[in-house]
Amino acid sequence: MRHEPRASEATEVFEADHSAAGSTNPPDEKTLPIRPSGPGAASAPTRAPSPPAQRAPERTEQAPERTEQAPEPAVERASEPAEHALGQAPQQPAERVPGRLAARVFGAVTVVPALLAAAWLLPGLPLLLAGRLTAPPLVFMFSPLAVGLCYLAMRQQPARWPGFRTEPRPRVAVPWWPVAATIAVAAGFAVWQIAERTQQVIALGDPATYLQTASWIARHGSLPIPYSAEAFGGTHPGLTFASASYYPAGSGLAPAVMAGTPLVLAAAIWLGGVPAALVMTPLIGACAVLSFGGLAARLVGARWAPAAAAALALSLPEQYTSRGTFSEPLVQVLLFGGLCLLIDALLVTSQPATAPAMGAATATGTDAGTDAGTGTDANAGTAGYADWPNQDRVLAALAGLVLGLTVLVRIDGLSDILPAVPLLGLLLAARRRQGIPFGLGLIAGVGYGLAEGYLLSRPYLDLVGPSLRPLGLIAAAVVVLTVAALAATRSRAALNQLRRLPASQRLTSWLPTAAAVATVAVFAVFAIRPLIQKTSSQNDQNSLYWVIWYIGLPAVLLGAFGLAVLASRGLKSLLNWTDARAEARTWALPLIIALWVIVTVLWRPAISPEQPWASRRLVPFVLPGLILGAIWASAWLRDLAGQRGRARATSGVVASCCAASLLIPATLTNLDLGSSPNASGPGRHLTANGMAFHRIGPGQLAAVDGLCQAIGPDASVVILDSLTADRFAQVARGLCDTPTAIMDHPTRATVGAVLAGIERAGRRPVLIAQDGSELAPYGGGPREVVNLLTTQEAHDLTAPATRVWPIQYTVWLSDPVGA
Length: 819
Known about the structure:
Radius of gyration: 29 Å
Low-confidence stretches: 1-95, 166-171, 351-386
Oligomer: single chain
Mean pLDDT: 82
Strand content: 5-15%
Strand order of the largest sheet: 4-12-11-13-15-14
Distance between the termini: 91 Å
């Protein structure tokens, strides 16, 4: 007899279950209100609702017949009789639910980081576009905006989150231990990454570019970066200003990054300079881990949140991007926070402003204060909910805004959030109250990102145009198809076809199975891809094995299984238009994003395959999506073991084994355990040589400070070789606050003309090169001012990165005029 995974039960915020005795609901309807609606409250329906096409319209005093409208979700209509009974039940005073504070804290702390980021970015970009980005006005606008957004999001939270429950259990509150454990995981991650943070100040990749751009806008408040040709006596033959990651844009240089991350790092620079900015990203990474725990709690259950947070925190790509000034951790904060807000918006109930504080139910389904499919009051035990009748719309608008702002941080965010478009169409087709606010917020957030890209980062967008153009075509096609499908739902003929879908047993049985098989097939194709596609120029075909390196084969297998089952159940709910326990609606966008991002990123990572550099592509949602699927599968296996073993210890052992299978492989990759001979005598000892305790770029900040001191005041720097220009041009221009230019193919004549121009401008010329011999022809007593042996990322192609590689930086300087 095949055991099918059962639907999740909406119980997780307060974990309100049936008591062992006195339960009147049948086994498939196991939710109870947090607070009883009254002694005469109606119980839940005793059977699943009929499909929309097979049920006659019901009439109540609160809701008219719906014979001329699009089919409403059966989950909403099925609860109408019970809701009506609840509305007539005598009201009782609010019952204080034990553990309510733990649930509210958990719900709040996991969305606050995203709201704070949004509150900072919203006024920050207009100030940057106006060239007036300074701390006082930005803080002045940020403070009330942050308070307002947090208040709007936290003033009312869902009474329940869907949690994986299939057996009736005593009613218990969310305990403090998963809340404390998840926060402890995030705090431990922050301390660890701060201790091992990188010092990638010298331009050798995106981290330094983000940091240098943040330093510039914090000091000057505008982009692009001006050439300052007047500091060299005007333009000269062979004199250029562009260098790696900084491209000509009008009268200045545009960095090859989006402005979202530099805007956030600028806050740290205002507080404590570049050293504070190097601490900021580990803190952002810790917030991402915390928000991910909150997302797992909403989707699977609060007790699984610490395991999900720890699995993400122990993965090497998460640590690698959190130690340096990458954009991926901030993208995660916005993605996870936005998804949490959307789930809350879909679960929180709305009530008329005149309703009693306890929340009398009306006949508008889950939007009217009733737990879908059970007829229980979803707001029970929560005083004052009638004061916020539009909270679901507010949360939906905030969710769309936060998700849309990912584009301001990372242009690839357009692809990450593309599945939100068909979900928006589905919400509008179902006439859900959250649809329009979610769409408006999404448009506003994406508009911010596109405006920044067009006005400030146009050269960067031109550079990545070969990837953006196909994405733009796909996005346009998705929008057009969504609009067309939405228009079709206004047709009576189309509605009749939709009503017939639940009656087609053949269609509703094989399509969900096909979705699960297709999901598994995708992973199988990626697994055998290296055998089919053999290329010597790139290693994109090994992308699935990158994932296996960093989170382990058990996590990938569990994740693929979980995503496959969820895809099947989600499609079945869509075809039947039923979602009795809110699992389909809460999993909808996270599941679609996970599947979409996994396929698109693994098929074409669009990055050099060197590890760990390429692993950053897995950070936004490839690894998190698989971990979410694995956590769900672990919860299902635990529940199955509990039913078969009939012992709590059995399910506990299975849960522990599943958690260990998620944590141990990632830990081993990070530590790279081995043994070394004892220096003091015979024998060997255990060693950990992996990336977990290796820093990248130590000493760079001190080396840059020494370079700036050597350059001195009132100087104009001319760099004579391209390698030094790529590494140090923006360092000298930004951190040393010195006009800097580069000479292409320098000769005595061209360099002499530039030196004369600098002197005419009343400034002191300084020449820089990698080797002193390049400066010798121009006099000035060349001297070595930087000689740093430090570390960089490894460049492995066929294995995960377990070491750092050495790199040498040398800079020679001369003052030719003063010689």
